[in-house]
Design brief:
The chain is about 50% helix and about 10% strand. It is α+β, with helices and mostly antiparallel strands.
Length: about 230
């Protein structure tokens, strides 16, 4: 099976297609030198004109009927309050899920303590204590890092946004309007720790910067735009 390619059209990820099909898109002008492309051997999205093997000819590809003005999508940056609303929705969802998860872990801890006490032996009590410690550490890890990993996965998926962003009609892209990788999305989530310093100043600056970027957007070079 040949290599599969993806490309970006008007800010949306397209594909996968076989390499031969992508060459046909190049010849027809649907994929230009500046179109972002990616395959599984590449760490980041790059412009097709920088990938060896694609023949764009000596002149710019012809514009197909109905495609004029659509090659370079105009990005409409999402403002502070729209991003804030998406964040509130996400926090409500994560709080409900987190509460259920916390109750589950707490129940398992209580059950382990009761079982250890009922055993009446030192070995049983010791084993129960170990289980309680493991459950406590696991619970803290899930509640702390679970939302972060889930958000990174959603931002790097075809949805390009968390449930809150989907509801308000915004998404996360790179600075050229293309999708981002999981690791960039994860770095964005980690960078939010810095955005939370000094009374969340890193979040608030999204209301004043030219492209409505928060501190964590600047750190990993991302944008939040309308769909």
């Amino acid at each position: 099976m040949g290599m599969e390619w993806y490309w970006v059209d008007r800010g949306e990820r397209q594909g996968p297609v076989a390499e031969a099909a992508l060459h046909e898109l190049v010849r027809s002008g649907q994929v230009t030198r500046r179109t972002l492309v990616w395959n599984e051997t590449m760490s980041e999205w790059v412009e097709a004109g920088k990938v060896p093997g694609f023949d764009f000819g000596d002149e710019a590809p012809p514009v197909q009927p109905g495609q004029a003005g659509l090659r370079e999508p105009v990005l409409e940056h999402a403002g502070f309050w729209l991003r804030f609303l998406a964040h509130v929705i996400d926090q409500i969802i994560f709080s409900v899920i987190g509460g259920v998860a916390a109750a589950l872990f707490f129940g398992m801890i209580i059950f382990s303590i009761s079982a250890a006490g009922a055993s009446g032996s030192q070995g049983g009590a010791a084993a129960g204590g170990v289980i309680v410690i493991i459950l406590f550490i696991l619970g803290i890890g899930v509640l702390t890092f679970g939302p972060m990993i889930f958000s990174a996965w959603m931002h790097s998926s075809r949805h390009q946004g968390t449930p809150g962003k989907l509801m308000v009609g915004i998404k996360v892209t790179d600075e050229r309007g293309g999708p981002i990788s999981f690791w960039r999305a994860l770095g964005r989530e980690v960078s939010k720790i810095l955005s939370g310093f000094f009374f969340c100043a890193g979040f608030i600056i999204a209301g004043f910067t030219e492209k409505k970027q928060a501190l964590h957007d600047f750190i990993v070079a991302t944008l939040v735009v309308r769909r």
